[in-house]
Design brief:
The chain is mainly beta. It has a single domain, classed as Fumarylacetoacetate hydrolase, domain 2, CATH 3.90.850. It has three helices and 15 strands. The longest helix is centred in the last third of the chain and has 9 residues. The chain is globular, with a radius of gyration of 16 Å.
Length: 214
Amino acid sequence: MKPDAYLPRGTVYGTLLNFRREHALWTPRMSEAPYKAPPQAPVLYIKTANTFTHSGQGIAVPEGVAEVEVAASLGLVAGEGGRVAGAVLFNDVAIPHESYYRPPVKYRCVDGFLGVGDAVRPLESLAALSSLVLELRVNGVMRQRTALADLVRDAATLWADVNAFQSMRPGDVLMLGTDCLEDGTRPRVHAGDAVEITATGFAPLVNHFVQEAT
């Protein structure tokens, strides 16, 4: 961990159903209760401050949990005046669960469940992110490639749509979302595994998973 390594100083918001594959998989169920229609605005959840984990540090798998989901994401960091100051890599960890309706805090906001890249990369333009590909490796083996060209709402559109109903304050972070695998799941890891997330222009984000101390 670098001495000046970045950690969010505001609220971190995650975005659901913002990749085309997962959105298509869920479309047949969007007409079911409780909402009975597709979402018209971005579907957000919060990663609380207790989840923040520096790159290079361990993330604990809770007692009684066999495996956890890992997912590569890119976060837009808010600057002054409602603009985007830069972007940072994230490893969004969760206990596997079925439903994305009313995102469950107890599965997403466990202590340490957000790996955070060391530094925020300044951006010339949000449009430039459309060509970015995030790669996720477990124990050195490629498990997923996430292309931001596959977003339902691209970075600029998502930022504008969220700011239409809430103001992103300086230091807040908006994650663009996480892609799923072909079967609708995300890569899963166990205690003892190491996850590395990389993208061109960003320092690698690495976290080792350990068993929670009893």
